[in-house]
Amino acid sequence: MPLSNPPATLRQFDLSEPSVSISTKELLDAFLSGKSPKTIEAYRRDLEDFRAFTQSDNLPQTILLFIAQGLHQANHLALRYKTHLAEERKLQPTTVNRKLAALRSLSDMAYTLGMINWKVRVKNQKVSSASRDTRGPGNSAVQGLKEEIAKRSDPKGVRDRALFHLLYDLALRRAEVVFLDLADVDLSAGTLRVLGKGRLQKEVLTMPTTTRKILANWIAMRGSEPGPLFVNLHHDPGIRGKRLSPTSLYRIIRELGERTGQKVRPHGLRHTSISEAVRKAQAVGLDVTKVLQFSRHKDLKTLQVYIDQVENAQGKIAELVAG
């Protein structure tokens, strides 16, 4: 649906004689090369969102609109897009920043290829760590979810239990789970090869004994044929047997939560898992920064948000003051 009052459209720019000679296909190919399939999918989705905002017909036309008119117009357009995302669509700052990062990266690649001699540097939305809730459903709620999902022994129940335990026990992200293949599992060694967020190579993770047994039950039911580890069990033959989608996994966890009277999402399980890891590390005297290896965050600052919420220094000091 077109914007009622678009901030910028192709009609506002003369693209018949762009200020740079540019091959948009060359730029797109270079921009996406060397990235993981998940990253490519995310970048394409964000660029498509920007295309819809500009009301251009296709991505090559959008790229011309963005960079062919120079730094001033590119920054102006990016700022209008940022306002649209934050104020009109009211997206979360982290989502706004991810979409802006796609535009900055695109301009960086155009600069690297010598297509332009400037870079877009629109600032991110400020993200308050205090406003970011990393607690998830909480440990007691997770125990209830475990009990609920263990009730079923049919193929779907066994599959869903394995999905749940990978999400929670290893703090995996939704995409990390659905893109697993059978070849990524080594039950004898108790390891799992996972393609992490923003990574090009899979990393080997060790599974807890319980997780390993639950996953083995699903594989025994799934069969030994190569391919996706988790497949759709829908009655529709056109869908059944295909790789489970991230959307389907989201729905499985959401419906599990509904059966226990909770609002749960896959990433919430990861939040609770990492928060519990921080608590357990503190309890046994481990340096909580060791949890960085478990959470697989690239930046310690991200983990610090979990540590701050677990420690709740603000609340403890408030009790002292009020006491």
TrEMBL record:
Transmembrane segments: none annotated. CDD domains: INT_C_like_5. Residues 132-319 form the Tyr recombinase domain. One of its GO terms (molecular function) is DNA binding. PANTHER family: PHAGE INTEGRASE-RELATED, PROPHAGE INTEGRASE INTD-RELATED. Keywords: DNA integration, DNA recombination, DNA-binding, Plasmid. The keyword Ion transport does not apply. Residues 22-111 form the Core-binding (CB) domain. It comes from Desulfomonile tiedjei (strain ATCC 49306 / DSM 6799 / DCB-1). Belongs to the 'phage' integrase family. This is Site-specific recombinase XerD. GO terms for biological process: DNA integration; DNA recombination.
